[in-house]
TrEMBL record:
Keywords: Cytoplasm, Exocytosis, Transport. One of its GO terms (biological process) is acceptance of pollen. Belongs to the SEC15 family. The gene is LOC108838083. It comes from Raphanus sativus. This is Exocyst complex component. One of its GO terms (cellular component) is membrane.
Length: 796
């Protein structure tokens, strides 16, 4: 038995506690009794160099405990002796128990021997059974593994890579660790990465083939989308034209017009929807399949980067312009390729499940827009043909319309187009100038003959040049030459090209721009070309008359031009009429009329040379007028009968007034000139007859002219009429009366009156003639004429 743990006892105390040794001994004893560490005491002792003291204290402590130990041992020994006596008394009982156990054991062994043999057989059978079960489970596991492997092989052969990967993943995650066959396990560990690598290579190859194929598909897709945008634009324009026709006819049949427009809109909507379905027909299955496979392989981020980098390279390649092919021939393919590219990317963004982000698509679009703007700037700067620039602009605008449907911003492209607006119109003006020069140089100055109704519609009705709504009989001779419809076609083509360039470019109100360039075309190009034609090619009266007739028709055509520009620009006609200015071909119109007047004056001057044959001193008055005037009247009447067929009344009035004024000036000039030395009253009366013939001629023009215009026509020869009236009056001296002069002779110059009066004065009234007639009485009219001459000399 173990001795009980000694109780903690206080160390011995003595009366000599004041000494240091006793204190140290007391402390050591206390520490030992309490089981404390004696290290501090040992270190202190060796530090003071007195280990003997410590040893002494320890020996004293040991001797003090010997008596206690002895007492404890004695107590424990007595207990031991008592225990041995007890054991000796139990020895006989143990022997009897031992013999009983031996007998029981012998009996038990003899009885359990067969049971142990059966138990051994049972344990052996259970062991075999467990081994068989393990083998069966292992075989079943292997069969399941091989089944999945076989299915994976079948999926690989059929191209079902995702299902193959799912089988492989199932084998790896669920069955590989449980596979007990080391051979099979090593094979699986080797083949699973190979299968994944094979699948990745196959889908990567399919993706590469798709990336090559999608470029061709994108080009066709872009062409289809742009073609649909063009068809939609054409339908809108047709609908707009029908709407304008309906507005014009609304007062006649409002209900029918509205119904027709509504039906057309529905048809357009159906066609538009079907076009959208057709434009979206492209296959993204290889791409999404590759993306799904890489997601299964946990390579999603790498695949996204790979796809974006390849598409960016493709875009950069598509944005390059070949120097081997003219841009005019390749621009449709160029823009269609880019359009199809972004139609595909829009579909991938919307249905790709995060394959490409919106920011990445915007990055690609900004890159493409920058490249396209640079290409357009470069190509536009090289182009010198307006039609080429218009073709490219139209296709770019259609590109913008197509891609705007998918949410792409095309403002930068439209800004480039707007930037080259002035250059396009300058080129267009240059082309029109060449065309007009060619058209005018081919003019034969003959009235245009139209044999069929379609010719009339094409050359007259299409430009609203008709003066009546009633269709003429055919063949129809127009008052203008072929120059007019040719130039009208050029101007109309200019308007349509200008509107085509300005429309669909982001600017809604562009009529002012079209009108500005139309004014330049008419005021600079056409007007200058007509002036050049008039100054260089018009040499006869018939040519000048035809040109003047053409100018009158051009005046109506200009009204049509501005209305046509307003209609195409979507501006109400009332607003266009409000902003109309003067006739832009005023210079050439005035030049044509001046040229016609000049040629007629030359022709009149040829007849007026006959005035030299007049006997100015004759006493006989010509009854039918002088010969020169008869010739002039015949020519002028012939002229009017011809001119009124092609010249408008206002043009004819201006020309005739100018010609009649010239005739008046020539007669007055002749009377005042050196050709006429003396005048008789009969000659003056003959001139009066001539003037009456002119007045009679103007009276014949009343069917052509209004009353006011007929009166204005007579003012053309008011000078010769007032001069004749003055010379035939009874009191010619009334000319010097300011009131009478202002009322009746306001067109006369006193110097001319003085010259003619001097020639009319009777010779008998001269100084030398007074000797033979001194006793006779002077004629009152002659006296009045002398007074007039004297007063006029005083004034001069």
């Amino acid at each position: 038995m173990q001795s009980p743990k000694p109780r903690r006892k206080p160390g011995p105390t003595t009366a000599g506690a004041d000494s240091a040794e006793k204190l140290d001994e007391l402390l050591i004893s206390s520490a030992i009794c309490n089981g404390e560490d004696l290290g501090p005491f040992v270190r202190k002792t060796f530090a003071t160099g007195k280990p003997e003291t410590l040893l002494h204290h320890l020996k004293l402590f040991a001797r003090s405990k010997e008596s206690e130990i002895e007492e404890v041992c004695k107590a424990h020994y007595q207990d031991f002796i008592n225990a041995v006596d007890d054991l000796k008394s139990l020895l006989s009982d143990v022997e009897s128990l031992k013999s009983a156990l031996s007998d029981s054991n012998s009996k038990l062994q003899s009885i359990a021997a067969p049971l142990l043999a059966s138990l051994d057989s049972l344990v052996e059978a259970q062991t075999v059974s467990r081994n068989v079960d393990l083998a069966v489970r292992a075989v079943a596991h292997c069969v399941r593994v091989m089944d999945l492997v076989s299915r994976a092989n079948q999926h690989l052969q059929s191209g079902s890579f995702y299902m193959a990967l799912k089988c492989v993943d199932s084998v790896e995650s669920d069955l590989l660790e449980k596979t007990q066959s080391s051979t099979l396990k090593r094979m699986l560990e080797k083949r699973i990465p190979e299968i994944r690598g094979y699948v990745e290579r196959k889908v990567s190859k399919e993706l590469g083939d798709w990336l090559v194929e999608i470029r061709v598909v994108s080009r066709n897709l872009g062409q289809l989308a742009i073609g649909e945008a063009s068809a939609a634009r054409q339908r809108e324009e047709e609908l707009r034209m029908k709407q304008k026709e309906a507005e014009e006819q609304s007062r006649l049949s409002l209900r029918d017009c509205v119904y027709a427009l509504k039906e057309e809109e529905d048809d357009d909507g159906d066609e538009y929807e079907s076009g959208l379905e057709g434009s979206d027909a492209f296959d993204l299955t290889p791409l999404y399949r590759a993306y799904h496979i890489h997601q299964t392989l946990s390579l999603e981020d790498r695949f996204k980067r790979y796809y974006f980098d390849n598409r960016e390279l493709q875009l950069k390649s598509d944005s390059q312009v070949s120097s081997m092919t003219p841009f005019l021939e390749s621009h449709q393919t160029f823009f269609a390729q880019i359009a199809g590219f972004f139609i595909v990317e829009d579909r991938v963004l919307r249905t790709g499940g995060g394959l490409i982000s919106k920011n990445e698509v915007e990055f690609l679009w900004d890159l493409a827009v920058g490249n396209m703007c640079a290409v357009l700037e470069d190509q536009f700067s090289r182009m010198q043909t307006a039609n080429h620039l218009l073709l490219i602009k139209d296709y770019v605008s259609l590109l913008g319309v197509s891609l705007r449907r998918y949410g792409y911003t095309v403002d930068a492209l439209l800004e480039v187009l707007s930037k080259h607006r002035d250059k396009y119109h300058e080129l267009l003006l240059s082309d029109c100038r060449k065309q007009m020069i060619e058209a005018l140089s081919a003019d034969k100055f003959e009235q245009m003959l139209m044999k069929k109704e379609y010719e009339y519609s094409m050359n007259v009705l299409s430009f609203q040049l008709q003066t009546s709504d009633i269709a003429p009989a055919f063949p129809y001779i127009a008052p203008f030459s072929t120059t007019v419809p040719d130039c009208c076609r050029i101007v109309r083509s200019f308007i349509e090209d200008s509107v085509s360039f300005m429309s669909h470019g982001g600017q809604l109100d562009f009529y002012d721009v079209v009108k500005k360039y139309l004014d330049r075309l008419l005021g600079e190009v056409l007007d200058e070309a007509l002036l050049k034609l008039i100054n260089t090619s018009v040499h006869g009266v018939s040519q000048a008359m035809q040109v003047a007739a053409n100018m009158a028709v051009f005046e109506r055509a200009c009204d049509f031009f501005f209305r046509h520009a307003a209609q195409l620009s979507g501006v109400p006609l009332r607003m266009a009429e409000r902003g109309r200015r003067h006739f832009p071909l005023t210079k050439s119109q005035n030049a044509a009329e001046d040229t016609l007047s000049g040629l007629l004056k030359k022709k009149i001057d040829g007849f007026m040379t006959l005035i030299e044959n007049v006997n100015w001193t004759s006493d006989d008055v010509p009854q039918g007028g002088n010969e020169y005037m008869n010739e002039v009247i015949i020519y002028v009447e012939t002229l009017v009968s011809t001119a009124q067929q092609i010249l408008p009344a206002k043009v004819l009035k201006r020309v005739l007034r100018d010609v009649l004024a010239h005739i008046s000036e020539r007669i007055v000039g002749t009377l005042c000139g050196d050709v006429v030395k003396r005048l008789s009253m009969a000659a003056i009366k003959g001139v009066d007859v001539d003037v009456q013939l002119l007045e009679s001629f103007t009276e014949q023009l009343k069917p052509l002219l209004a009353d006011k215009e007929a009166k204005e026509m007579k003012t053309a020869f008011v000078e010769i009429r007032q001069l004749i009236n003055l010379l035939l009056s009874s009191h010619p001296e009334n000319f010097v009366n300011p009131v009478i002069r202002e009322r009746s002779y306001n067109a006369l110059d006193y110097r001319k009156v003085a010259a003619v009066s001097e020639k009319l004065r009777d010779p008998s009234d001269s100084i030398f003639g007074t000797f033979g007639t001194r006793g006779s009485r002077q004629n009152p009219k002659n006296k009045s004429l002398d007074t007039l001459i004297k007063r006029l000399k005083d004034v001069s």
